[in-house]
Each structure stands twice: as structure tokens, then as C-alpha cells.
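Ligand-bound model needed. fe (ii) ion.
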Amino acid sequence: MRQMLRKSKLDDVSRYEKPWTDSGSSLVADIDQTGIVLFKGLDPDSDDHLLRLGTMLGTIDVGIDEKLLGPTIMHLRYDPAIARENKLPAYFTSNFFPLHTDVSYVPNPPRFMLLHCVNPDPQGDGIYLLADCYAAMASLNDFEQTIIQKRVFSYSYPPNCPEGQIQNYAIFERRMWRYKHSSMCFPNQAKSTLKRFNQALSDVSQQLLLERGDLLIVDNHRIAHGRTAFDPSATSNSPVRHIKRLYATTLKE
Ligand SMILES: [Fe+2]
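Prediction:
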């Protein structure tokens, strides 16, 4: 087990900045190493960079119904009318998001999440939190690491979602991490382990405030992400926080 935990925790995230590349294989190799990659200064008024990078990584057809994921390119920005409905994942709220991996409830969650910043929050809030699950796992004892790898965790589908069936998964199995504390069911035996893992994730997390034009790629099978709250009512002449999101995944071999 200890040997498996070879990946080091995230460091200052600005170290993951990369120049543009046209090589999908070198991009995947970089993400295999670090879990995240950051591109700077890519025109966010165009979808071209998102679509090109997503396709270079494998495919942007991740095989999950739009009812769950939303459109291929999702515009993440505060919308009070939708946020209040509380029917689908909380894309449109401004509250704090604890660390989690995305779409953990489906059999094959997309491997990559691409986030392209059109406008940051004018107050400098809405900061991304990023945590390497391997690094969090490394601080657990052997018993806790065994619990993490047991198939005793179930992950709820979004409220009122007609798609899919809840199944049991391990938090870590077959080199994939699934974690969303707020919508997981687990046996009592795992309660203290989850609390410790949650704290460990928080301890190793790094903050990243995306600037306009920043494009962040996150390995959703390894890096948990969250977001600090922001105040959408703050008056400002600057445009409101707006992030474009695309999922991509590796092609089946
Ligand atoms: Fe998320």
C-alpha cells in the first residue's frame, strides 16, 4: 500500500503552468505526473481551446446523459432563480463547495475536468481548492487505508434525477478516486475514517484563483476540487464570475 502512494502532494499550483501544446500524449503524460495542468492567457471568448484540449485528451463524448452533466460546455455562473430550485447539481450557487470529485455516482466518471475562466469574481473570492487524494491517503493508517478501498460507499444521484442506479463503490479502486462526503452513504464502521480522510484532504489542499484566460485541467480520478464562497450581490462595475467547464475522458483501449 505504501508503495502505491508514490504521487506527491500538490505544491504551489502555479508550478503546474504549461505552455500551449498540440501533443495529446505529452499533455496526458503531464497530467499523469501532476494531476493538474494550467494554461495561461487563452482567449475565453472562444470555445476553441477548450474543445481542442478536450479532444486531445481523448474524447469529449464522455458517455453520460446531459440530464446529469448539462451541456457539453457548461457555463458556471451565479443564477439565483436556478440556484433556489435545488434540483440539479449546484452549478449556479455562490456558496462554499467542499472538496469532492465530480460525477462519482456513475460507473465511469469522466477523467478530466477542464475549467476556462471567462471572468473571475471581482472580489477575488470563488477560489478553487485542489487536493491530491493520494497525498491525503498517505496520512491515514493501514486500517483506514483498507476501509477506503472497501466497496461499501454509495453515492447519490442528483435530487429528482431519473437516470441511473446507486451502486456501491470504493473511495479508491482501480486507480480511481470517488469522493463526495455530502452525498455518500457509508457504514458506521467507516465514519471515523471518512472524517480523517476529509481532514487530510483539507490539510493537503491548495488554493487557486483563476484569472481571465486561465484554463485549468484537473484529473477528476485523482484530484478533489472545491470552491470558496463568493458574494454575487457585491456591487461592482466588473463582470460577474463566469467559468466554462468541459469534461473529457480517455478513449477506451
Ligand atoms: Fe465539482
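The pocket of fe (ii) ion is lined by residues 100, 102, 225 (CB under 6 Å).
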